[in-house]
Amino acid sequence: MENKVYLKFLRRLAAIGAWLQAVLLIEMLLTVLFFLPAITGITAESLEGVYIDPSKYLVFVHEHGFLRWMLDPDLPFAIVYFITVWGVGAHLREKSRELSWVATTIGVVSSAFFLGVGMIEMVSVPELAHLYLKDPISAASGYHGVTVLWNGIAAGALFTNGIWILIVGVAGLRGSILPRSFCYLGLLPALSEADQHVSYTGRRYGRARRHAGQVAFFPQGKRTPL
Prior knowledge:
By secondary structure, this protein is mainly α. It has nine helices and no strands. It has one domain (2-217). The protein has helices at 2-40, 47-52, 54-63, 65-71, 74-92, 97-132, 136-175, 180-194, 202-217. Helix 3 crosses helix 6 (97-132).
């Protein structure tokens, strides 16, 4: 009885994590499409140019710190993503301990990558924005170095996240745990994301495909997930 209650809790946990990821996605898209142009005049088409140019992005970070958090919610995403991974992995143990171990390990690594991206955005970038007011040349040089690290970690996050969704989707198809349409909806973004080359804005828009698959796995928090 206790085991059933625990598994029910984990199913709800996975559902909550997936829906919170969807909320972050919607918030991010609303920021890019509406809030950002209305407040700063930066459009979605010109956003990549802002990220590439330190003189634009570091000034943007200094002047619109809160808006930047809405634009890059990687830190809270890492937390809710880990919640989803943990809930799904615990449930997979009922079907296959080996598959559960592989999926959970890859998911935890992916969430750690997202955490790394979020920490760079929370700590390194604001410090460079503050330095830019005093020493623009040094700040710009530091920013270029940070973005190389940033892109590398983000690429690892997306790749491992795609592999995690792929494993979960395959498990769902083999075990007939979920409707096949839900599994295929998850497999498509997984395959796309595992092969995606990351850019400043591509990392953000590519996340839309991932969330579509993850929320499909846990649409109401009541269906038995993988």
